[in-house]
Write the structure tokens for this entry.
Amino acid sequence: MRTKDWTSDRIRDLRKRLNLFQKDFGRMIGVTERYVIYLEKGVKRPSKTLQILLSMIEENANEKGKEK
């Protein structure tokens, strides 16, 4: 699996595709709601570990979308 360059827009788009509020998305990835806000505004950049996790979540979401 290859990780992408997780920009603030890409992170926001993933969260919205999953139909999650920032608080719920934060719980899913193990960070606070405030940190999700910082990621989506571009104030913070995701760590390498978080980038891998985001890539895994996106890959899983894409596979579920194909099943429908």
In short: The chain is about 70% helix and 0% strand. The chain has a mean pLDDT of 93.
